[in-house]
Amino acid sequence: MIKKYLIVFAVLLCGVQGQAQWAKGKGKGYFKLSAWYLQSDQHFTNTGALDPNVTRTQFNTNLYAEYGISSKVDVIAYIPFFARVAQNNQVSGTNGNTLQAGEALSSFGDVDLGIRWAFFKKGNWAWDAKLLLGLPTGNSQGGSDGSYQTGDGEFNQYLVTSVGYSTQIYNLPAYLKSYIGFNQRSKGFSDEFRTGFEFGVNVLPKKLWLSTRLNLLRPLKNGTLNAATSNGSIFANNVAYSSYGFEAAYFITDTIGVSAAFDSAFSGRIIAANPSWSAGIFYDLK
Fold it and tell me: How far apart are CA 232 and CA 278, in angstroms?
């Protein structure tokens, strides 16, 4: 389910952390209210080629939360409480007549709930494991043709482990982290392998963090659903992509800040080929 937002996303990389330390700590947390937007007029086909499609937009407003229930264990939630998909009118290039009227659908999106265990921390190194459960709370068959989706209709379990290292670059705090994960899916969807890297630096001490990331998703193609008719859908089976992204997070106070992010796939199969954008406000409970 997380793949549908390329953010992999984020692989839920919603907060910029200054240290290679995943656990928030008991009673501490991170909360973010944000909006995500994708407008797509082209897609990667099942052969990796670029093809145009009728312009379709995906939008959601979501809440992401991490909260420490012990010194090493956090609970995690991603809740897209408003999701909308819309498609433009199809207009004849010859006479300008509307060939097919556009549609729109708004609903709740697919929720992710999980837990993180920070089982290793020594010096500048940190290592954790995370389990996310994807709940099919969105609409997987909306609109007149069933393609207006705010969810994929399947329950999945995503297990991922991350390793990070905190350091300094020209006396500025910085970090590196990488992850590798396996997403087990149901309802005929193929299971998925995911991996990626992230680098961040605190360019304005205690104020501005900048980060960049690279994410890769590959299906195992062990499902039964036919993806041939789903080119361009962000909820299709056998989606594959390699994507890059950038994020900026600025602390207005010691605990409250704003962020903006950009992510785009530079190669893929059966996935939208346009960039996505997000912006939000966060609260770092210390």
Answer: 20
Residue that is written with structure tokens 């549609």 in the block: 103
Query: Hey, what are 215's tokens?
Result: 């994410």
Examine the pLDDT at 240 and tell me if it is beyond 90.
yes
* Spatial contact of 71 and 23, defined as CB atoms under 8 Å apart: yes
For residue 246, the SS3 value is: strand
Tokens of 85: 């998909």
Q: What confidence score (pLDDT) does residue 227 get?
A: 59
Structure tokens at 206: 């205690």
Q: Note whether residue 93 is domain-resident.
A: no
DSSP annotation of 191 reads P
This prediction has a pTM of 0.90
User: Which residues, including other chains, have CB under 8 Å from residue 93's CB and lie 6 or more apart?
Assistant: none
Structural domain contains residue 96: no
| C-alpha to C-alpha distance for 88 and 77, rounded to whole angstroms | 32
- Amino acid 15 reads G
Q: Please indicate, yes or no, if residue 39 is contained in any of the structural domains.
A: yes
User: How many whole angstroms separate alpha carbon 219 and alpha carbon 240?
Assistant: 6
Number of domains in the chain: 1
Q: Tell me what the mean pLDDT of segment 158-171 comes to.
A: 94
User: 37, 235, 55: which is closest to 141 by C-alpha?
Assistant: 235
Q: Write the CATH number for 123.
A: 2.40.160.40
Percent of the chain with pLDDT over 70: 88
Confidence of residue 143 (pLDDT cuts 50, 70, 90): confident
Domain housing 11? 2-87+102-285
